[in-house]
C-alpha cells in the first residue's frame, strides 16, 4: 500500500491504524513534509521496519511510478492535499498544484504501471480521500448531503478538491481505473495541526489569548473522530466497491460557538480538579478561577465561509457495515488531555 500524505494528520493516523490492523502489509508513505507533515508521528513504525518513508512530491510522476514498481504497490490511499481554507484564500495556486495536478500525476502513474494493453492488474485500487466541503453550504434544516448531492464548492480549497474528485472519476470512466472516493466530515484527534479549530482554541485559551470566532459562530459542522474515519476507510478498502463514493460522517453536529464553549468547559473543569495546571498555565483565565469562555471574541467572518455541513453515512453502513463508534465527548476529552501533555 502507498499512502500519500502519510505524515499529515489524517495520513499518520491511518498509517498507524493500518499497521496495527494489517501487520503483514507492506506500507510505503510518500510525503513532501510541508508545514503540515511531521515524520516523527511515524518514527516508531519506521524504526521497527513496519513501514518505509519516502520524502517526495506527488507531482513527481516518475518517482511515484518507480515506487509502484519497486514495492509492487496494489493499493494507493491518497490523503496528500493542501487543506486549510484560510491558506487557500491567500494562495489558491498552491492548492491547484498539489490537489489537482498532484492527483493527476498519481492517476497517470497508476495507469502506466497497473494497466497493460487496456487490462488492469487484478486487485488494484486507487482510493481518494475527499471532503464534505465540495458540496458547499447546507441549508439549515435541510437533509444531510449524500453521495448524489451536487457539487457547489465555495473556497479555492474545496474547488481544488472537487476538481481532484472529478479527475479520479474521469479516470474510472475513461480508462476503467478501479477507484473509490470518500467524503469525510470535520476530523479531530491525535496529531492535528495547531492551526485547526480544536487545537488552536485550546492553545489560545491556555496562553490567555483571544478565542477568535468568525462572524456569529453559528456555522454548523459535523465532527468525525479520526479513528472512526480510519475504520471506515478500512471497511471501504476491504469491500468490493470499486467505482463507488461514500460519505463518512461522525454523527455529532455542533456550531463552532458550541464547540468552543464545550472546550472551554472541559479546560475549566481540569483546572478546578488539578491546581497544578494554574502553575503551568498562569495566563489561562481558569488559573484565576474565571472561565476560559471570557476569552471568546467575534471577528469579521471569513470569505466564502459555509454555514453548515452534514453527511448521510447510510450508504457506508449498508454496504460495508461501518458506523461511528467513538463517543464525541470522551474523544474530545482525550484531545484536551493530549494538548495539555504536549504543552508540558
From TrEMBL:
<dbReference type="InterPro" id="IPR005888">
    <property type="entry name" value="dTDP_Gluc_deHydtase"/>
</dbReference>
<comment type="similarity">
    <text>Belongs to the NAD(P)-dependent epimerase/dehydratase family. dTDP-glucose dehydratase subfamily.</text>
</comment>
<dbReference type="GO" id="GO:0009225">
    <property type="term" value="P:nucleotide-sugar metabolic process"/>
</dbReference>
<keyword id="KW-0520">NAD</keyword>
<protein>
    <recommendedName>
        <fullName>dTDP-glucose 4,6-dehydratase</fullName>
        <ecNumber>4.2.1.46</ecNumber>
    </recommendedName>
</protein>
<feature type="domain" description="NAD(P)-binding">
    <location>
        <begin position="2"/>
        <end position="334"/>
    </location>
</feature>
<keyword id="KW-0456">Lyase</keyword>
<dbReference type="InterPro" id="IPR036291">
    <property type="entry name" value="NAD(P)-bd_dom_sf"/>
</dbReference>
<dbReference type="GO" id="GO:0008460">
    <property type="term" value="F:dTDP-glucose 4,6-dehydratase activity"/>
</dbReference>
<dbReference type="Pfam" id="PF16363">
    <property type="entry name" value="GDP_Man_Dehyd"/>
</dbReference>
<dbReference type="InterPro" id="IPR016040">
    <property type="entry name" value="NAD(P)-bd_dom"/>
</dbReference>
Amino acid at each position: 500500500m502507498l499512502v500519500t500524505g502519510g505524515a499529515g494528520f489524517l495520513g499518520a493516523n491511518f498509517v498507524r491504524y493500518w499497521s496495527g490492523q494489517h501487520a503483514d502489509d507492506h506500507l510505503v508513505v510518500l510525503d513532501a513534509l510541508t508545514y503540515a507533515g511531521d515524520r516523527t508521528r511515524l518514527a516508531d513504525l519506521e524504526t521497527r521496519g513496519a513501514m518505509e518513508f519516502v520524502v517526495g512530491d506527488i507531482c513527481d510522476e516518475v518517482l511515484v511510478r518507480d515506487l509502484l514498481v519497486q514495492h509492487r504497490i496494489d493499493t494507493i490511499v491518497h490523503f496528500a492535499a493542501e487543506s486549510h481554507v484560510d491558506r487557500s484564500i491567500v494562495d489558491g495556486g498552491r492548492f491547484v498544484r498539489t490537489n489537482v495536478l498532484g492527483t493527476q500525476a498519481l492517476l497517470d502513474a497508476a495507469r502506466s504501471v497497473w494497466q497493460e494493453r487496456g487490462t488492469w492488474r487484478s486487485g488494484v485500487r486507487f482510493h481518494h480521500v475527499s471532503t464534505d466541503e465540495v458540496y458547499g453550504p447546507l441549508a439549515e434544516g435541510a437533509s444531510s448531503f449524500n453521495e448524489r448531492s451536487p457539487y457547489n464548492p465555495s473556497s479555492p480549497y474545496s474547488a481544488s478538491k472537487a476538481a481532484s474528485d472529478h479527475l479520479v472519476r474521469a479516470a474510472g470512466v475513461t480508462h476503467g481505473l478501479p477507484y473509490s472516493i470518500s467524503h469525510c466530515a470535520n476530523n479531530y484527534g491525535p496529531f492535528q495541526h495547531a492551526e485547526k479549530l480544536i487545537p488552536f482554541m485550546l492553545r489560545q485559551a491556555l496562553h490567555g489569548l483571544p478565542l477568535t470566532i468568525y462572524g456569529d459562530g453559528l456555522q454548523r459542522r459535523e465532527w468525525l473522530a479520526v479513528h472512526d474515519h480510519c475504520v471506515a476507510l478500512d471497511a471501504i478498502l476491504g469491500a468490493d466497491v470499486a467505482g463507488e463514493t461514500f460519505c463518512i460522517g461522525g454523527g455529532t453536529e455542533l456550531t463552532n460557538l458550541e464547540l468552543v464553549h464545550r472546550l472551554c468547559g472541559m479546560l475549566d473543569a481540569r483546572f478546578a480538579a488539578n491546581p497544578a495546571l494554574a502553575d503551568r498555565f498562569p495566563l489561562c483565565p481558569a488559573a484565576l478561577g474565571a472561565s476560559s469562555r471570557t476569552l471568546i471574541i467575534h471577528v469579521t467572518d471569513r470569505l466564502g465561509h459555509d454555514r453548515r455541513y452534514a453527511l448521510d453515512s447510510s450508504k457506508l453502513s449498508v454496504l460495508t457495515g461501518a458506523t461511528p463508534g467513538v463517543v464525541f465527548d470522551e474523544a474530545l476529552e482525550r484531545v484536551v488531555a493530549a494538548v495539555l501533555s504536549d504543552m508540558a
